[in-house]
Amino acid sequence: MNLRSAASVCLDALVKFDPRYLWHNPVLLLTEAGAVLCTFIAVSEALVHGPSTSGGTTLPAGFTWLLCFGLWATLFVATLAESIAEGHGRRQSSHLHTADEDVPATLVLDYDQLKDAAARTARTEQTTAGELKPGDVVLVEAGMQIPADGEVIWGRASVDESELTGGVGEAIRQAGTDRTAVTGGTTVSSDRLVVKIQVGRQDSVLSQTLKLARGAQRQKSPIEMALNTLLASFCLAFMLLALSLNLAVSEVAAPISIPVLIAVVVCLIPTEIAALMSVTGIASMYKLLQRGVLVASAKALETAGGITTVILDKTGTITRGNRTAVEFIVLGGTAPDTLLSAAALASAQDPTPEGRSIIELANQLADGTPSEGQIRQWDQEGGTPVAFSASTRMSGHDLADGTKIRKGSQSAILAWLKAQGTAPRREIVAQMRAEALGIARNGGTPLVVAVKEPGAPGRALGLVDLRDVIKEGVSERITRFRELGVRTLMVTGDDRVAAATIAAAAQIDEVVGDATPQDKLALIGQEQAAGHFVAMSGDGINDAPALAQADIGVAMNSAAAAAKQAANMVILDDNPTHLVDIVEIGRRQMATRGALITFNFANDVIRYFTLFPALFVGAFPGLAVLNILQLHSPASAIISTVMFSVVVMGILLPLAIWGVPYKAANLQSALSRNLLYCGVPGLLVPAIGIKIIDLFISMIPGF
Description:
Layout: H1 3-15, H2 19-22, H3 26-47, E1 53-54, E2 57-58, H4 63-92, E3 104-108, E4 124-128, E5 137-141, E6 150-154, E7 156-160, H5 162-165, E8 170-174, E9 181-182, E10 187-188, E11 192-197, H6 205-213, H7 222-249, H8 258-268, H9 271-290, E12 293-295, H10 298-304, E13 309-313, H11 314-318, E14 324-330, H12 336-346, H13 353-365, H14 372-380, E15 384-389, E16 394-398, E17 404-408, H15 410-419, H16 426-441, E18 444-452, E19 459-467, H17 474-483, E20 487-491, H18 496-506, E21 510-512, H19 517-529, E22 534-538, H20 544-549, E23 552-556, H21 561-566, E24 569-571, H22 578-616, H23 634-658, H24 667-697
Parallel strand pairs: 13-20, 13-22, 20-21, 22-23, 23-24
Antiparallel strand pairs: 1-2, 3-4, 3-5, 5-11, 6-9, 6-11, 7-8, 7-10, 12-24, 14-19, 15-16, 16-17, 17-18, 18-19
GO cellular component, one term: plasma membrane
Keywords: ATP-binding, Cell membrane, Ion transport, Magnesium, Membrane, Metal-binding, Nucleotide-binding, Phosphoprotein, Potassium, Potassium transport, Translocase, Transmembrane, Transmembrane helix, Transport
Pfam family, one: Hydrolase
């Protein structure tokens, strides 16, 4: 941190003295009120009368001023801690940015996707990113910045996402595929795209994350709010103690001065916890940013520490997601060209990579297979494409002569044939199942192609073997989940055997195949009803309901816009292994907060022995026996304890930012380790620290 940055952080800490900012932090607000009152008393002592007495002890000259310094220093260090964390977050996330308000955008007016999908003849208007709203269509050409989060509805282009990933970030974004989502602030490197804006610039996941990481408009998480309520009750309790203390001892001892009562309250309320709790949240946020994970809410990060079940979508999460047709397998003596033509026609309106690969493979294998031009001609002659549906798990084509062609999963096709009043012969079904099982055992996904001609029974023509590969590093990170005690489930609409093969290769604990979007929702509900906290990852439109239902929804950056909006975390580099980072950082945050609370409460034990004997030792000399640290004088004991509050926050700040190591263990072992590593130092550090400060304070004349 250079001098300019340090000055900026210090100024920001002073700005946080505003009572309107501290209103939601009762401990720091009370500290500021005490500092203001103490300053007023110090000024009045200087103008009206000399040093005061407290509990029968005459306080040295300058005591109240030195106490004021300690109180203001405590408040400054507390706000400085949060400012340092926010500044650290700003530096760590400096490579991330959203499109600026004034980034130029080419707005397409009266866009017609059927007649002019490329928007070459459409009227356009120059505007800025700040003026765009959801539903607007913009044209983005090579070298232009994408003005806001959206979805590609026409075109194919390279998009530079290095601003997001922090490295080489060229990615292909193409309409009609599962790689249509684009992020505001990235740059089109080649060609041109027509993009439909999904969210306003300020509402994107990246914008929300940057606000959280940089401390702007940061909302406290539920645990922080609950802890604030607890701290407020502590403040109230210690204020009542201070207000009633003089009344309780009025018959036997001289009254305690107001500055000393203020010192007692400020030292005993958990100032360190109040100051550093938000620091742990901000620090955890930028740790995930460093790993390329956007977090939309503080609650999501807090929940991550409690995750016990992770549900993973197969395609695009466990596997690369670009399934490719590698083989056609005929059934029951069907002519190969018949199968190839039907498969190509059923894929005519399938925009996915697998749909295009079926047409390409069919064209390679047989000259008689209809070309893409012929398919478009048939469409214009009255054919009706049947788009893929997650609920039916089929796509296809209805020809003008009444012929129906379908392509889909084995169970879906058999159900469709039955609905058409046809049941394939037993030998055909047996052959189909045997071939599908062979494909699935080799890690492929079998698709069945069937046809129903007018006046003829429906029949299964054959199968298509689709292959996908598991992403690098997935198996190792799944093993790490197991070490953390997290159960993994893979849910997919693909064939059960194929899914089981992929799951076994990735070392996933359980697998659910042939699943519909409703099945995914039901599974999440079952896990939650059993008391589990569930994280769900996905990237398709059909995953959006499940992502919204899960305790944490995690979408890949290339996911459909609906999935990204339903999720509360987005992985920028599409690497599912970051799911482990999310859980580990969430648990590390929990462990750090537990360590800070234990350390602070142990501190208070020592503070009781430094403060309370000093209150009445002037009236009751026998209380000197409780001065276990052998502090020089009552005045020195009080000042040293206040100054230690300043020093200890400086000691704990790096711990709050970097966190404490998390190790999976049962509750008893975790509690024992916490008491050993945090409780014991919580007793030793203040004892040593207050004694050292006392040695310096005692050198001041009168103390």
